[in-house]
Design a protein that fits this description.
This protein is α+β, with helices and mostly antiparallel strands and 180 residues long. The protein is 28% helix and 22% strand. It has one domain. It is built from 5 helices and 8 strands; from the N terminus they run ααβαββββαββαβ.
C-alpha cells in the first residue's frame, strides 16, 4: 500500500467518523463497518449510505463522482467503484467538513449514463476515473444537504478545531433539540 493511498484512506476514515457523529447529532445513528472485508461484502454500513470526502469541493464548486478505480496506475483493468460499486448503497453522501450532500445512487447513475464519454476524467495518479458534478447540478439532484456548521456539538471534531480543554458537558437529552 502506497503512502498516498494510506493518507487518502486515513482522511476518508476520519471523515466517515465525522459524518457518523454529525448524523447522530441530527438524530440519525449510523454505524460504519470498519474492515475492508465487511465493506466489500456489505457496503460501508447496513443502511446503504456510501460516504465520500471531497476536500476540494469548497474551492472548485464541483464534486468528484468516482465510477472506476485501480489499485495501481499500471493495472490494466478498472474496477467499478463509487456510484457503480455493486453493494448495498442506495444513497451516496459526499462533502467536506462544512457541508454534506446526499444523493440517490440511481439518480447519479442515470445522470452518468447521459454524459458524453469525453466528460469522464482520470485523476493525475491514473487510479480513479469519474466525472465532475457542479454545484448547480448537485442542487437539482440532491435529496438532502446538511450544513455541518449549524449542527451543535461538531465543532470539536473539525480538523482545524483547537484541542478540547475538558471532556465537555454531557448532552442533556431532555433539553436537546434535534432538527429533522
Amino acid at each position: 500500500m502506497s503512502e498516498y493511498y494510506r493518507q487518502q484512506l486515513d482522511a476518508g476514515q476520519r471523515y466517515q467518523d465525522f459524518v457518523a457523529r454529525g448524523l447522530y447529532r441530527c438524530g440519525f445513528p449510523l454505524v460504519n463497518y470498519q474492515t475492508r472485508d465487511f465493506q466489500l461484502r456489505h457496503g460501508e454500513n447496513e443502511f446503504g449510505l456510501e460516504i465520500k470526502f471531497d476536500r476540494i469541493f469548497a474551492s472548485s464548486g464541483k464534486f468528484w463522482i468516482e465510477v472506476g478505480e485501480k489499485t495501481h496506475s499500471t493495472d490494466e483493468r478498472w474496477r467499478d467503484s463509487g456510484i457503480l460499486r455493486d453493494d448495498n448503497a442506495w444513497l451516496y453522501g459526499i462533502g467536506d467538513y462544512n457541508e454534506f450532500w446526499i444523493f440517490g445512487v440511481e439518480h447519479l447513475r442515470r445522470y452518468y449514463a447521459k454524459l458524453p464519454q469525453a466528460e469522464l476524467l482520470t485523476n493525475y495518479r491514473e487510479t480513479s476515473v469519474g466525472f465532475l458534478l457542479s454545484r448547480e447540478v448537485a442542487l437539482r439532484l440532491a435529496l438532502k444537504t446538511i450544513d455541518w456548521r449549524s449542527v451543535d456539538g461538531l465543532e470539536i471534531d473539525r480538523p482545524d478545531a483547537a484541542p478540547p480543554t475538558s471532556a465537555g458537558a454531557p448532552l442533556n437529552l431532555d433539553t436537546a433539540e434535534i432538527e429533522r
